[in-house]
Specification:
Blueprint (H helix, E strand, L loop, with lengths): L21 H26 L1 H11 L5 H34 L3 H23 L10 H21 L5 H4 L3
């Protein structure tokens, strides 16, 4: 015959989860939009291969065909891998912030800071082959930054605080 193991005290009730406020829900939607824009950025990066090739040749007219191909391939690999990492981070932060993880707010701010520095560097160092951008990818970079800014403002809004403090 089975006897349940005795417990001490009264049964513990699970704490009630507070539903995310509208500010957090909007921030999460923006984070998913950020991931979608990163997909667009990868596509733009892949479609701008021809302009990349001409930019590399303009900067390094003495490159052999092999060197040109290697520089082009390296740039595309960096674009795709960087984009996939960014998509994963956007989705992870959307999930974690949507579940009220307080560390996710801080980490989102850190990622936004890194994105800000990256955008500043990319605007300042446009002459480098590794940092060359087409107008489209530059616009996408600014759009991603604006989405990040809006999400950060929303998750650090006064209405969002109690949702993150419930744990």
């Amino acid at each position: 015959m089975y006897q349940p193991y005795p417990t001490s005290g009264s049964p513990q009730e699970e704490p009630q989860r507070i539903e995310p406020p509208s500010t957090v829900r909007s921030a999460v939607k923006l984070m998913y939009a950020g991931a979608a824009v990163e997909v667009i950025a990868i596509i733009i990066g892949l479609l701008s291969r021809a302009s990349l090739k001409s930019s590399i040749l303009a900067k390094h007219p003495d490159f052999t065909t092999r060197q040109l191909h290697a520089a082009e391939a390296a740039s595309i690999v960096v674009t795709v891998i960087g984009g996939l990492i960014a998509i994963g981070l956007w989705i992870w932060m959307a999930w974690a912030n949507g579940h009220g993880r307080s560390w996710a707010r801080v980490l989102s701010a850190v990622f936004f800071g890194i994105n800000t520095l990256g955008l500043i560097v990319s605007l300042a160092v446009r002459s480098s082959v590794a940092e060359m951008h087409t107008a489209g990818s530059l616009i996408v970079g600014v759009v991603v930054w604006l989405i990040g800014l809006a999400a950060i403002v929303l998750i650090f809004n006064k209405k969002s605080g109690p949702f993150y403090q419930q744990q």
